[in-house]
């Protein structure tokens, strides 16, 4: 039935485990789902168990020789290359199977939307947006975001918009569709001169045959909720209105938070909640309500990711949580056991106000420089006036 949200999840996706003290630890997913269940968000929700993506689906984005390298890596007696076996992308047992399962979960979520069984779908284990056609990168083996988009294009969807709010540039998805005018990729990220992968400049706007379909907003370190929201609303709604997608796909990395150890933006959980609500409004206004939400980065494993993504689930499900909601005692008891000495939050808020002043022209504020650069690079390519605050 349409107008419902499909949640794709199974504990088996926790097998995407890069091991040891790797920042992308699956405990963040486990704690998120435990918190959502403790708060009753998944009551009466049928949770769909994912199946692995097959080679045909993976090869819509990745090269066959790369798949072979991923399969052979755990038992190979030689360096298989392709970005595997690095500190960022260590080799682990059943790496292909675990990675294909995450990709399959995103395809299954996409299929729920394309089939009409749901208007919205979510795969929190997804969002592995850095993987390239022939190599792993940035903790990502298979690029489930691009794979799900490619699957939808192959199954009748003609125009898809992808919005990436991870603190790192959504480089792998941009690269996959840089030549494809059917896909609009929008990334809000920390400025590429200050953070890996050092791409995502405003001048990256798509190839000549798809010019204007890549949109990049590089935010200065220290960007807070109000500034982030100002930049988002000054650019994203206008390009979506011009592009008119049939489906909105979002990568909702939680690492733009001020406590994230791998980056330097300064959002709160309250600002992240506001960003999810804004994405929901955009899906309703510009994509016929069709919204595929994926996870992504986020390395404050105990304090931030579970709260942020529980708010994401609540938003996608139209079961919005009061930010002052207390965190249930059963979740706290479990989290204490796995978090050790990390102090845990007691409510779903950071006590921040994410209200912002809409952009109405360039000021001396660093975020307005980012807005100016993005609008001047891409707005004319969509017939929009970069100086007009109504666009």
Automatic annotation (TrEMBL):
Pfam families: Hist_deacetyl. The lineage of its organism: Bacteria, Bacillati, Actinomycetota, Actinomycetes, Pseudonocardiales. One of its GO terms (molecular function) is histone deacetylase activity. GO terms for biological process: acetoin catabolic process; epigenetic regulation of gene expression. Pathway: Ketone degradation; acetoin degradation. Gene3D superfamilies: Histone deacetylase domain. It comes from the Bacteria. This is Acetoin utilization protein AcuC. It comes from Saccharopolyspora erythraea (strain ATCC 11635 / DSM 40517 / JCM 4748 / NBRC 13426 / NCIMB 8594 / NRRL 2338). Belongs to the histone deacetylase family. InterPro entries: AcuC (IPR003085), HDACs (IPR000286), His_deacetylse_dom (IPR023801), His_deacetylse_dom_sf (IPR037138), Ureohydrolase_dom_sf (IPR023696). The keyword Protein biosynthesis does not apply. Keywords: Acetoin catabolism.
């Amino acid at each position: 039935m349409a107008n419902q949200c499909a949640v794709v999840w199974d504990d088996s996706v926790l097998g995407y485990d890069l091991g040891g003290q790797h920042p992308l630890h699956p405990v963040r997913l486990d704690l998120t789902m435990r918190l959502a269940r403790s708060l009753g968000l998944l009551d009466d929700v049928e949770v769909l168990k994912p199946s692995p993506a097959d080679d045909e689906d993976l090869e819509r984005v990745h090269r066959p020789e790369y798949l072979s390298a991923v399969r052979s890596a755990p038992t190979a007696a030689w360096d298989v290359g392709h970005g595997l076996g690095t500190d960022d992308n260590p080799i682990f047992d059943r790496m292909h199977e675990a990675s294909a399962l995450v990709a399959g979960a995103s395809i299954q979520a996409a299929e729920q939307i394309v089939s009409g069984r749901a208007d919205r779908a979510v795969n929190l284990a997804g969002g592995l947006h850095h993987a390239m056609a022939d190599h792993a990168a940035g903790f990502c083996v298979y690029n489930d975001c691009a794979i799900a988009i490619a699957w939808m294009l192959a199954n009748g969807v003609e125009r898809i918009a992808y919005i990436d709010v991870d603190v790192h540039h959504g480089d792998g998805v941009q690269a996959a569709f840089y030549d494809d005018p059917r896909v609009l990729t929008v990334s809000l990220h920390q400025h590429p001169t200050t953070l890996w992968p050092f791409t995502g400049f405003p001048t990256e706007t798509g190839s000549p045959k798809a010019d204007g379909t890549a949109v990049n907003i590089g935010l200065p370190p220290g960007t807070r909720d109000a500034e982030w929201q100002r930049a988002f609303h000054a650019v994203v709604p206008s390009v979506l209105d011009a592009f008119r997608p049939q489906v909105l796909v979002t990568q909702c990395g939680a690492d733009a938070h001020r406590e994230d150890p791998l980056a330097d933006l300064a959002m709160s959980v309250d600002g992240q909640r506001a960003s999810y609500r804004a994405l929901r409004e955009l899906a309703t206004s510009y994509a016929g309500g069709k919204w595929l939400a994926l996870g992504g980065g986020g390395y404050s494993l105990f304090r931030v990711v579970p709260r942020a993504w529980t708010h994401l689930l609540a938003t996608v499900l139209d079961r919005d949580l009061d930010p002052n909601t207390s965190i249930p005692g059963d979740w706290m008891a479990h989290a204490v056991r796995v978090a050790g000495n990390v102090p845990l939050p007691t409510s779903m808020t950071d006590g921040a106000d994410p209200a912002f002043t809409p952009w109405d022209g360039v000021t001396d504020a660093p975020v307005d420089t980012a807005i100016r650069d993005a609008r001047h690079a891409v707005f004319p390519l969509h017939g929009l006036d970069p100086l007009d605050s109504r666009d």
